[in-house]
Amino acid sequence: MTRVVYCNGPFGWPHSTTWMGPIQDTIRSHCPALRPAHYTHVKATGPDHMNPEVRSFHHQDTFTWSHVVVDAASRHAAIIDPALDFDPVTGQIETASAQRLLEYIETTALQVDWILETHVHADHLTAAAWLKDRLGAAGTSPRIGIGRGVLTVQRTFKQKLDLGDEFAADGREFDALFDDGAEITIGNLSGRAMSTPGHTADSLSYLFGNTAFIGDTLFAPRSGSARCDFPGGDAQVLFDSIQRLYALPDATRVFLAHDYPPEGEAPLAETSIAAQKAGNIHVRAGATASDFVEMRKARDATLGMPRLFWPSIQTNLLGGRFPPANAQGQSYLKMPLGGEALESLQLKPAP
């Protein structure tokens, strides 16, 4: 049986998880870094009270960028889209990547007000709950926020995963559900949520001063746009969301949730509205909705299921926590089996 551990202590953290296997109650206080961290550090430009400093950390295994957004005057901060380390073959979960964020926060004496999710991710497991527990144990009380569209995502996957009545699908796992235009404050820095659905029903961008954190709405210009074939996705809606982003000032610094660089090139954490409008391979300024929708549907038809889809969805619906443990202290993640596969193999579910 696979042994699964958390790094750096529980602090109220639920049991560790094995993919399709039991979650064991083993805690490890230290773990080695899985891979070298790539990061960028962007200092504020313009009036300090308007624009944040941003430190970005790259999660190589899932091509994910996590960002620490800092109000330089107050030293308050928000973390956007943090990731856990998960191996779907062995079921091992570690926190080396999240620990890098925590170490940066501690060494720079930041107080974290928010842990913000741009949507329920389908390609990595969020570290939001782990970070909240660790930071809470250190004396701060960050809140986890996400778009109100998460209610639609929770209801959808409650049915698809047969999660039962114990999962209320009412967003209670999060501390705040943001509507379009909701104000979000980091220290003395005021920002707002911008609803940017299309990739998913709950996709949200966060705007602080001259920065925009856009989740999976767009990738770097060389990589284009996000897929729209997940439940709740819609290419026309994504096009409309992109046009909302393109209405921002051209100089807006755009921070990405992912980058998929060609071999030999470094991943990009940041681009700009001007760069996206001028060079995005899927949707330059002036592109038509019909052309974009046709392209997106054709491309999506060629894409496979993300490697971590089911473990990510089930964990991220709960804000980064795992299903409740049974009487033996073990918890399980589910993975639905397709009916067509069962039929083609001439197999039937056990009675």
List keywords for this structure.
Metallo-beta-lactamase, Chain A, globular, six-stranded mixed sheet, alpha/beta, disordered N terminus, 351 residues
Question: What does this 3D model show about the protein?
Answer:
The chain is α/β, with parallel strands linked by helices and 351 residues long. It has one domain (6-326): Metallo-beta-lactamase, Chain A, CATH 3.60.15.10. It is built from eight helices and 17 strands. Strands 3-4-5-6-9-10-11 form a seven-stranded mixed beta sheet, with helices on one face. A six-stranded mixed beta sheet has the order 12-13-14-15-16-17. The protein has a two-stranded parallel ribbon with strand order 1-2. Helix 4 (235-246) packs across helix 6 (289-300). The protein is globular. The two termini are 26 Å apart. Mean pLDDT is 86; it is low at 1-39.
Shape: globular
Share of residues in helices: 10-25%
The second-level CATH architecture is 4-Layer Sandwich
Task: Note the beta-strand portion.
Answer: 15-25%
Strand order in space, largest sheet? 3-4-5-6-9-10-11
Report mean pLDDT, rounded to a whole number: 86
CATH superfamily placement: Ribonuclease Z/Hydroxyacylglutathione hydrolase-like
Into how many domains do the coordinates divide?
Answer: 1
User: What is the CATH topology classification name?
Assistant: Metallo-beta-lactamase, Chain A
Radius of gyration: 20 Å
How many β-strand stretches?
17
Query: Could you name the ranges where pLDDT drops below 50 across 5 or more consecutive residues?
Result: 1-39
What is the CA–CA distance across the termini?
26 Å
